[in-house]
Amino acid sequence: MSTTSPSAPGPEPAGPEASGADQTNAAIRRLVDAQTTDGAWPSEEYELLLVEWAAAMRDDATEPVP
Asked: Segment Disordered: which positions (predicted)?
């Protein structure tokens, strides 16, 4: 049986080459990583970030590739 360790998250994109989806995805990761095991979950904030991420994915898909 082989075991694998979870891969470390890559660096967060920054600057003009970072898409809106990348930036929102990084915010979602920070939110999830900041959670404790006390059972509280910021569902409203998470839902808003998911909506932003979905919108950014649509925007990124419609932008012309340089």
From this structure: 1-25
DSSP-derived 3-state class of residue 64: coil
CB neighbours of 56 closer than 8 A, spacing ≥ 6? 19, 20, 21, 23, 24
At what angle are helices 20-33 and 43-62 packed, to 10 degrees? 160
In the prediction, which pLDDT does 51 show?
A: 94
**Going by C-beta distance under 8 Å and a sequence separation of 6 or more, which residues neighbour residue 53?**
21, 24, 25, 28
pTM value is 0.58
